[in-house]
Structure formats: structure tokens, C-alpha cells
Write a structure and sequence with these properties.
The chain is of the alpha+beta class and 445 residues long. Helices cover 16% and strands 35% of the residues.
Length: 445
């Protein structure tokens, strides 16, 4: 399904989160206790509180011919043993270290079949052992068998709207009862998640469901996995809670296995590793070697892009309109540059300075409230909601004068006001210390 492939970039970031952390060396303390997200251990392993199963519930709307596409993805840990330990070939020192390979299981199930009866999919991932001659030494890789179950069920949501509640459970049923976590990981599903696609239907957001489905959304039970709406027909059942419709920053040149860090910081830290540290990282894992090589070869312009970008979360006046000027904007005789072709503003002033955007003028801008244009100097009666500030009760019903009409980075409008009966209003006006209210919290006079 095309939608599942489009979601793969997000799913890959989840799959490799925490796979190997900076400084990407096996000797680093943080890489001795690995894999914290989405680990489904054998049910007989009780030395930690890690689960052996996950459950995701979400809501969808589907036609009679709708088909559910499932793709279970996880990492299968394999042991890599180097003989002799520290073997050096072509300047790379190879070390014993556990790797992981990607595993996927796909299934297509008509939604009407799921409504009629639950489906259970059982799989056995076979063991494997093989060797590789490497110069004067040898590398042996071993993968242990896994047994798992994928259980899927669906039921109608009560009411006239035709919604469906979908439940997906992933369970590790491997028979093993040891006490060592490193050994348990080799028999676990690591970073396990499920991509759900829907043909002839759409998923509903649990974060912001339609009103008719709100009660059903609140009743959904999710354990060790959370449904993230990637697009209307794709959901990611993720072990890491994400907001709906996530995306990878286009400036990011590649994975660093740590989404909680900033790419620029990790890149600069990696550049600062000594040659000996880089050699050890390259010998720790092929994916670590890819990071070291990519960072070492990174052009300056790519590194500069990691420093940051400004993006609007929604359309804003002036920012999303074509720029008609032929000359740079002038402010206090200093040039302010125009927007670049990719929509990013390059300015000589901070983005929050009104001088950086000539379309913003708090002293002359206006907003229409109840059919009345409101600008600087307008009189208002304050009707604050009281939901965000307990002191709203002290200003409710009082009259105020508008000092400026402002827009925040999310495109929302705010009114800066002074109280008409405040004896210190002149001082507040001089210092720019105003009270702020939304258009829905005031009544024009």
C-alpha cells in the first residue's frame, strides 16, 4: 500500500530510536544497557518489568469493501562475535557487539471479516548462524528463534455514525525463562510497532476526534503502543508517543539514533571525536560507521542548515503571500532581507521584531470583533474567560483602551490594553507593560 511506504520514514525513526547512542562506541557506558523502547520480552522473562505484549486501539470509518493492511516491524537482535577480539583489518578495529536486523510481517484483512470474527496471525522467525572470514580472523553471527502472535479484532462503535473500534495486539510467545536481560533481548521484539493502512476508509485522530466519536476515543485502551495518525488512511502504533501527522525535518541529513537530541549538537560532538574514538565507533557497528563517515564528509552548507529554520504552523498574513517588492524592506535605514525560495525568512532582525516583517504593524493593525473594527485607541469592555488566569475576575466588566493589535507565531490575534481606571496607565503605556486578551474575551464599545 502506497500510504504505508510513505509513512516508512517516521517508522524508521521509531525503529532505530536508541539503537546506538553517541559516542557510538561499544565501550561507552550508555551503550552497555541498550534498547529501551518497544521491547517485547519473552513472557517467561521476569527479571525486569518489561512487557511481553502491546495493545493499540483506534477508531476508523470504513466502507463495505474496506481492507485493513497491517505491517508489524521490529528489530531482531543478533550476536556478533569477533575472533580474535579487536581484530584490525584495513585500519578498522572490529569488536564483539550485538547488532540487529529489521523484520517485517504483513497481512491484509477485509474490515467486514474482522467485524465478523477476530483474526490471529502466528509466526516463527527462525534461528540462524553463519560466519565470515575477515583477514586473519573470523566474525560469527548468531540469531535466536522468535515466536509471536498478532491478534486483530474490530467492533462497531455504538450509535448512528457507523464508526469502528479496531484493536491490535502484538505478543511475544517465545518459550524462554532465563534471567539475563542481554540474553532476553536476543529473544525479544525490539522497537516493535505496527503500521496500519486502510483502503476505502479513514482513521480518526484520538487526539482530536470528531465530537460524535469523542466518548469512544476516550474509551480506547492503549498499552505500550500509541496510535499516531500519519495521514487519513495510515496510523502508526508507536511505542513512543508522537503527535498526529509527524514529519522528519528536511534539514536532517540522516539518522543519529537519538530523536531526543538536536542534530546539530550530535553532529558537532561527533566531529569532535578523536581519530581513535572514530576508529572504535566504526568497528562497533556498520551503522555507526555510516554516521561517522557521513559527518566527516558533511559539506559546510549542510551543517549550516542544521542550525535552525523558521516554519509557520499555519497561514499568517504576509508570510504566505507572494512578495511583490523589488527592493529590500528598510527599517531605521537597515536592510531586512526577503523570504528565500524555500519559504524561510532571512532577516537582519529577530523574527519577533515587527521591523522584520513589514506586513505587521501593531500600532495600525485592526481586527473585526462582533462586526466592529478594533484598532489602537478603541474602547472595550473586558469579558475574560477566566480559564487561563485566576486574576481575570478582577478585570471582568471593566473598560479598557487598545494599545496595540498583535499576532503570535501561531497566527492568533491578541489585544494589548490598558485599564481606563488604572492610575498607572501612563506608566504602563510608556514601559509597554500591557494586559493581553483574545478577541473573544472583549466587547467593543
Amino acid at each position: 500500500m502506497r500510504g504505508l511506504n510513505a509513512a516508512r520514514q517516521i517508522a524508521d525513526a521509531v525503529l532505530y530510536e536508541g539503537y546506538l547512542l553517541y559516542p557510538y562506541r561499544a565501550s561507552a557506558a550508555k551503550n552497555k544497557v541498550r534498547w529501551q523502547f518497544g521491547v517485547l520480552v519473552p513472557p517467561g522473562f521476569t527479571a525486569t518489568s518489561e512487557p511481553s505484549a502491546s495493545r493499540t486501539e483506534c477508531l476508523l470509518e470504513a466502507g463495505a469493501d474496506a481492507v485493513l493492511h497491517l505491517r508489524l516491524r521490529f528489530l531482531h537482535v543478533q550476536a556478533r562475535r569477533v575472533d580474535p577480539e579487536g581484530l584490525v583489518v584495513d585500519g578498522v578495529q572490529h569488536r564483539t557487539f550485538d547488532e540487529a536486523v529489521e523484520a517485517e510481517i504483513d497481512a491484509d484483512i477485509p474490515v467486514m471479516d474482522l467485524l465478523a470474527a477476530p483474526h490471529t496471525i502466528e509466526r516463527i522467525v527462525p534461528a540462524r548462524r553463519w560466519g565470515e572470514e575477515l583477514g586473519p580472523g573470523r566474525i560469527m553471527r548468531t540469531r535466536w528463534p522468535l515466536r509471536l502472535e498478532l491478534r486483530v479484532r474490530a467492533e462497531p462503535v455504538p450509535g448512528p455514525y457507523g464508526g469502528i473500534r479496531l484493536a491490535v495486539e502484538v505478543g511475544n510467545t517465545t518459550a524462554w525463562d532465563g534471567e539475563d536481560r542481554e540474553a532476553a533481548l536476543r529473544r525479544s521484539l525490539v522497537a516493535a510497532h505496527v503500521l496500519l493502512g486502510l483502503t476505502h476508509g479513514r482513521f480518526l485522530s484520538l487526539r482530536d476526534p470528531p465530537e460524535w466519536a469523542r466518548q469512544a476515543a476516550e474509551a480506547c485502551r492503549n498499552e505500550h503502543a500509541w496510535p499516531v495518525l500519519i495521514q487519513d488512511d495510515v496510523v502508526l502504533a508507536s511505542p513512543i508517543i508522537l503527535d498526529d501527522r509527524p514529519s522528519i525535518a528536511p534539514e536532517s541529513p540522516g539518522d543519529l539514533f537519538d530523536g531526543t537530541e538536536i542534530d546539530e549538537i550530535l553532529t558537532l560532538r561527533t566531529l569532535a571525536l578523536t581519530d581513535a574514538e572514530k576508529r572504535e565507533a566504526r568497528g562497533t557497528d556498520p551503522r555507526a560507521a555510516e554516521i561517522i563517515d557521513r559527518v566527516d564528509a558533511m559539506p559546510p552548507e549542510v551543517l549550516a542548515r542544521l542550525h535552525g529554520a523558521i516554519r509557520s504552523p499555519g497561514p499568517r498574513r504576509g508570510w504566505d503571500e507572494p512578495v511583490q517588492r523589488d527592493e529590500p524592506v528598510q527599517h531605521d535605514s537597515e536592510p531586512v532581507q526577503q523570504r528565500t525560495e524555500d519559504g524561510v525568512f532571512e532577516v537582519d532582525r529577530p523574527w519577533w521584531d515587527p521591523g522584520a516583517d513589514a506586513s505587521v504593524s501593531p500600532e495600525t493593525d485592526s481586527v473585526v470583533i462582533a462586526g466592529v473594527p478594533v484598532a489602537r485607541g478603541a474602547k472595550l469592555r473586558l469579558r475574560p474567560s477566566g480559564r487561563s488566569d485566576a486574576q481575570d475576575m478582577f478585570v471582568a466588566g471593566r473598560t479598557a483602551t487598545v494599545e496595540a493589535v498583535l499576532m503570535d507565531v501561531d497566527g492568533a490575534t491578541h489585544l494589548a490594553v490598558t485599564l481606563d481606571d488604572d492610575p498607572g496607565a501612563d506608566i504602563r503605556r510608556e514601559q509597554g507593560r500591557f494586559l493581553y486578551f483574545g478577541p473573544e474575551e472583549v466587547e467593543p464599545l
